[in-house]
Structures are given as structure tokens and as C-alpha cells.
Specification:
The chain is mainly α and about 260 residues long. It is about 40% helix and about 10% strand. β3 and β4 form a beta hairpin. α5 (about 120-135) crosses α7 (about 150-160). The N and C termini lie far apart (about 100 Å).
Length: about 260
């Protein structure tokens, strides 16, 4: 007599229950509020490590959750969702998190808030070279720009905290090596230097190089945001190396005493 067939037998392995640890971490409201308060009160971008230390100290991670990094990511994600469509929102910048004005409202605030002082062309060109070639010496900057670098230009960048010394080059004279600072990332809204556009991208599909240089000049001087457009516009000039015609000496003299104040 033929045995009846059954869909399941005792030899088959039982169904495996879903691992609850793979589910999204539970995020208490108190953890989101504390993250919000910390980011709002901090004068500098708040790193995920700093937020993790605070949440761990306050014991706000629910029992049963062991991955602190995943919990912090969930808290930040919840905070971002909470601020969707509002006038400000938490943004990841310069290796941390900071509240920034919503991009669609920036244009409406230009008439009621003082704009940051524009940096002269010589300063912006030097900053772009440092950003793309760091760490580099003063001689490196002069070789790429094709014109001597005035001390006033360096002083302006140092006072703005956009560059800082990065040691000395092991050559005769041991010149100072310059690099950008976290303030540079914060000022231009970059999470890291890898967010800078590649130099090759700035020169793609540009048949008329003379026209490109003219457009760079217009962006640097006439752009509505001034300092925000300068590095990207000037970066194309730095990518060409010494092939660009030297800048007239008058460009260096555009940084006057009152302009530095």
C-alpha cells in the first residue's frame, strides 16, 4: 500500500524565525531630542563619535541593542526625517553634523542677512591650488599660478582660518607646507575633500579654453555667492598648471588693507 505524501515530514528542518537583530534599531524620542540639542548648541560640526559617547553616557540605547554605531545612524536618520520641509535641517559637513538653512530659502535671505566678504581673485586662486595640491609650498603655488605669491594673500587665508601649516618639506630651506582646514570644509559645505569636483571634470567638453577662463573670471567676481563659487571656478585654472598665461601683477594688489579687515 502506497504511503500518502505529506508536504512536511519530521525529518525536515523547522522554519527559521526572523532574526530580530536585523531589524532597524528602536530609536527613543529622548535620544533624538538629545542629538538635536547637541547639534544645535555646538559651535562646530558634531561628529558621530561625540554623539555616540553622549548617548552611551546617558544610557539611551535600548536594552538588547549592541551596535552603537547603527543606533547613532538611526538617531541621526530620525532627526533628518523630523526636519524635512522645515526652514533648517541637520546636514553632514566637515566630518560632523550641523544645522543649516534649507537650500531653497537661501536666496530669500540674501537681502536680510549680510553676505560674507568676497575674497579677491588672487586669494581664491591660491586657495584652489592648495585645496587640490595639498600639502604644497609657497613655491608650488607660484609655479602653478605663474606669478609670485604675496604675503598678503597668505595672511588673508590664514586669518580666515581656511589654511594652516602642515609641517615642512624636507628640502633645503625646509619651506612650510600648507593645507586646508576643517573651517574650509565647513565654509564651503563639504563633508570631506573627496567632495571637491575632480579637476578633469572641470575641463570636460570645453572647446574654447579662452572662453572658459573668461567665465571663470565672471564667476569669481560676479557670482551671487562670491566665496562659494570661487574655488570651483578657479580650480580649473589650477588644473592647467603653468600652461595658463601669467596673471598680471595688479591682481596681487587687489587685496588692500581695508579688504583684510
Amino acid at each position: 500500500m502506497t504511503q500518502p505524501e505529506f508536504p512536511h515530514t519530521e525529518d525536515e528542518a523547522p522554519s527559521v524565525p526572523v532574526d530580530e537583530t536585523d531589524a532597524a534599531p528602536i530609536v527613543p524620542d529622548d535620544a533624538v531630542r538629545l542629538a538635536e540639542a547637541l547639534i544645535f548648541a555646538a559651535s562646530e560640526p558634531v561628529s558621530a563619535r561625540r554623539l555616540a559617547d553622549l548617548l552611551e553616557t546617558r544610557r539611551l540605547m535600548p536594552a538588547g541593542q549592541e551596535d552603537l554605531g547603527a543606533f547613532v545612524d538611526a538617531v541621526l536618520a530620525a532627526l533628518v526625517r523630523q526636519y524635512e520641509g522645515r526652514g533648517v535641517s541637520p546636514v553632514e559637513v566637515a566630518g560632523g553634523w550641523q544645522f543649516r538653512t534649507a537650500p531653497d530659502l537661501a536666496a530669500q535671505l540674501t537681502r536680510v542677512l549680510e553676505r560674507p566678504r568676497r575674497l579677491p581673485r588672487a586669494v581664491m586662486e591660491s586657495l584652489a591650488i592648495i585645496a587640490y595640491h595639498q600639502p604644497c609650498t609657497r613655491t608650488d603655488i607660484e609655479d602653478i599660478r605663474g606669478v609670485s605669491l604675496g604675503q598678503t594673500v597668505l595672511d588673508t587665508l590664514i586669518e580666515a582660518e581656511l589654511i594652516a601649516p602642515r609641517g615642512r618639506k624636507e628640502v633645503p630651506g625646509r619651506p612650510v607646507l600648507w593645507g586646508t582646514t576643517p573651517e574650509f570644509l565647513r565654509h564651503f559645505g563639504l563633508r570631506a575633500l573627496s567632495d571637491l569636483p575632480r579637476r578633469e571634470e572641470l575641463l570636460v567638453d570645453v572647446p574654447d579654453m579662452a572662453g572658459l577662463r573668461q567665465s571663470q573670471s565672471e564667476i569669481t567676481f560676479d557670482g551671487a555667492d562670491g566665496m562659494e563659487e570661487g574655488p570651483r571656478a578657479s580650480a580649473a585654472a589650477s588644473a592647467e598648471g603653468t600652461s595658463e598665461p601669467p596673471v598680471e601683477p595688479e591682481a596681487e594688489e587687489s587685496v588692500s588693507g581695508p579688504e583684510r579687515a
